[in-house]
Amino acid sequence: MQLPACLRACRLIPPQPRAAGYAAACLAPPHPFLPLISSLARHVAALRAAAGRLLACGCGGNIARPRRAKTWRRDAGRRSVLRWAIFQYGEFLMGREAEEEVCLKISGELASRGEERGSGGARGRDSEMAGGLAGGGAAPGRAELYEGRITGYFILACIVGSFGGSLFGYDLGVSSGVTSMDDFLKKFFPDVYHRKQAHLHETDYCKYDNQVLTLFTSSLYFAGLVSTFGASYVTKRRGRRASIMVGATSFFLGGAVNAAAVNIAMLIVGRVLLGVGIGFGNQAVPLYLSEIAPYRIRGAVNQLFQLTTCLGILVADIINYFTDRLHPWGWRLSLGLAMGPATAIFVGALFLPETPNSLVERGHLEEARRVLEKVRGTHKVDAEFDDLKEASEAARAVKGTFRNLLAARNRPQLIIGALGIPAFQQLSGMNSILFYSPVIFQSLGFGSSAALYSSIITGSMLVVGALISMVTVDRLGRRFLFIEAGVQMISSMVVVAVILALKFGHSEELSKGVSTVLVVAICLFVVAYGWSWGPLGWLVPSELFPLEMRSAGQSVVVCVNLFWTAAVAQCFLAALCHLRWGVFVLFASLIVVMSIFVILLLPETKQVPIEEVWMLFDRHWYWKRVVRKDPKYQGNLHQQQEMARA
User: Fold this and answer.
1) Sequence-separated (6 or more) residues with CB below 8 Å from residue 394
2) Domains of the chain with CATH codes
3) Over the stretch 149-162, which tens digit does the pLDDT of each residue have?
4) Residue pair 258/274 in contact by the 8 Å Cβ criterion
5) Cβ(117)–Cβ(263) under 8 Å?
6) Environment class of residue 363 by beta-carbon count within 10 Å: exposed (0-12), middle (13-18) or buried (19+)?
7) Which pLDDT score, from 0 to 100, does residue 636 have?
8) Angstrom distance (rounded) from CA 646 to CA 107
9) By the 8 A CB rule, do 54 and 41 touch?
């Protein structure tokens, strides 16, 4: 968009007619200095007033922001720091949505929101604002009519959601540390303990090669895979809050059983209960946050869930570092502390309202409106409530969604979003490092405490990567982060493999310098994953599916992800034993395949309205040959072209 149009829209230069402003904003090429102007407007205090209008109109026309938004900004000093930070962060991530809506006015998209696209009703697009799994995308036609403010209920929902993410992350981190503790191994896996103490170089790679030990880790994810089907039913029929409470209860019981375990059977039962809790929590908590959050900061809230997962891993690594010194019951404390976040989630859920979306979906319209008014802090919720009802009606009209995933028009989304990216996310080898980082470092000659300390470093790098991704994903694009991280991850794995092949297992211990290089290489691998395949492995699939396929597609994504998570966890230690340093060459080779997959098949979705992502495949060099074979796709494309000409 042209710089004069941007300044005119923000009332910094004289206005021109509204229609001309829309045309200039949507059809003109980007001005080279616009990013600099936007950056200055956001960060320089002298331009704060201009930045407010800039975010309100999205540089595209004289669309006035409701005065309540300026009140939030003006009252930031009197309100809590948390409310102000949440709103500002949401503005930063979601500031382009008003611009997208202006462009939709030109294309005629808003005029067609009540018409059907393909086998499902595209009128349900309004549900993307009213509450969906994907955060982001263009604003619906009535979004500018929505009123409300950040309330205490929303802040409480953020806290509960944060505990949900940290709960999942805590389990990822705690299991890796416990499986390397001597007291834990002596009690349940004495053979592994004796091999660990042997210090024979020829068996270093195989110290932890025990299928029952790996079953301790992977059983959770197999249980989570199965429980997602029941969780989906409970979430839809009984509500999001009920599913959250079921998940918290199951996770609490799992932590208690594991902490009190006296044999391997109790350990596995506890892990299964933990898996059921994670299956229910991962199904319900992100959906709850998406539906309860104000429109402008929905994407920020979804990113917060991913960040707290990484923080949970880091906290677990720190706890393992200290409990390893508590003999002989330190491992029980590590496993038992999982009851803490589970208790917090359950107690918090008691005070949470059910989401208006769920109440409307189940026919409780009066209660839904009452809850919506309470959550938004205003009685003026007519526009949003109408969108909720329309979205619910459109969702009921969609039939045969899983069967339609196989249609030619949805083939790119199926292959890229539902099958490719979730599988590659696990085959990158990152979760193997998360599961077994202390085990890996001990196998490479580090002591027990040094191994746990090194895992803290890798956990910190994962958090850093997640923060970098939040800042750069909408600036640099998805493809850039995937490809750059691919190069960095491949280089790191090759360095690790070469060092181990030359220096390790030849009747000599690794020197301190070589060990440091290994830790640095693994950290570079982890931080690259943290800003690419980690968060984007969930974000990109949610962007690719059209609305009528999104629920079914997301279910397939979760199932594929959990399946490969469990499979990699079960097989990694055996692969490390038999392939030795070659396992890192294997991961490097898989990352090469992943990067080629992204380069050839994934279109860039940065700054593309979520309702229009499906049209990218019509311009893709390969996918256009697939999707154009579908008669319904041809009809949809012709309809879009006619509306654009109109």
Assistant:
1) 120, 121, 122, 123, 124, 126, 127, 547
2) 3-114 (no CATH), 152-352 (1.20.1250.20), 405-646 (1.20.1250.20)
3) 777 777 877 777 77
4) yes
5) no
6) exposed
7) 56
8) 8
9) yes
